[in-house]
Amino acid sequence: MPDSENPATPVTFPPAFLWGAATSAYQIEGAVREDGRTPSIWDTFSHTPGKTAGGETGDIAVDHYHRYRDDVALMAELGLGAYRFSISWSRVQPTGRGPAVQKGLDFYRRLVDELLAKNIKPAVTLYHWDLPQDLEDAGGWPERDTAYRFAEYAQIVGEALGDRVEQWITLNEPWCSAFLGYASGVHAPGRTDPAASLRAAHHLNLAHGLGASALRSVMPARNTVAVSLNSSVVRPLSQDPADLSAARRIDDLANGVFHGPMLHGSYPESLYVATAGLTDWDYVLDGDLTLINQPLDALGLNYYTPALVSAADASAKAPRADGHGASDHSPWPAADDVAFHQTPGDRTEMGWTIDPTGLHELIMRYTREAPGLPLYITENGAAYDDKIDSDGRVHDPERVAYLHGHLSAVRRAIADGADVRGYYLWSLMDNFEWSYGYGKRFGAVYVDYATLERTPKTSAHWYGRAARTGALPEVEAV
What is the similarity comment for this entry (predicted)? Predict the structure, then answer.
């Protein structure tokens, strides 16, 4: 039937729409000491007592490094048309500088060949949070040199895979790298320095620009270069001017700090003003904004839940309900007087409110923000407490409903004029969920962590049917 919120919305997707799933290297690969790989910041962080749930690490993860052929066969069986994965920087360039380790590159060559043999389009993300520890020891993302090291790494990978991989993404969610890694400390490397987090944000932007240029210097012109942003849908609690101001400040820190220079070649002036007590931004050198503002072939949007904010009551000392982990330190520099509120509605196992209208709103914002730029939903999904039943099946009707709602929002946005060309479900399979360890299951495929056996959930079969037909099955159809 047509979309219930808009009966005129077509039920089918455009024929060329790309149906994919996504993962990241540290969350699935394992084999952390094989074939020359050295520690990344996530190896160090997860092995630091108290940093992850139960002290769990990605040492084995779901052993994709050894099981990739079976995993690709499973993708083909489900009917996926694309697979977005990330490269482990320290598997390719163990110290973050110098020549590549060919055994590391060979793994990704084999993976790409396997995907192409199954008619699955590979999409490569160069950086999904796992900085080589050697580069962190030299200062990490707050140091300018890290951006130049990233460009060197991008060129190496582009030369190795650019003849067979057409879709490229420089960075995944640089907001998390900068602000969860260097401000709140809930992600690797676990630092809590708000001024350093802003420097990190700028150098991640610079890395994106330099990396995009490096990729284009060694790849065929047909290849596309994008970035994946976890841009927030920031809503004020009320129309009170103080709440509107609070929402603007969080929007600058969540969105403008990245899309400003990447899409428009400038940071928001309001961001400079709000953070003046922390930094004078003297690390933004002449020419940086031009380097960052490289033409993009597409923009990736990652969406999970909206944010609801207000001006803070100075007398209140409530926990920060921003959905980004528990810490005494905020990931929002110079915004301690902004309060976050739990939005109403059903929630996932992460405690995140389920709101497909936010995805539609986000898509339409960037349709206006960057007219003519193709969009991909490069992450969207939900964690639930999935269990395998006595018949060996995993029923996850909540995830099916979640996917139906959010894919309906994508289809509605396309009907409203948005150029959305694909959707990557997060995640292909259960995996190491960062500081939550193995306690949060986002996968469409269930993984028994004791045996590493894979079992497609109801949602995997439902999504596979959508991918094969280009239309959304009814929620009860599988």
Answer: Belongs to the glycosyl hydrolase 1 family.
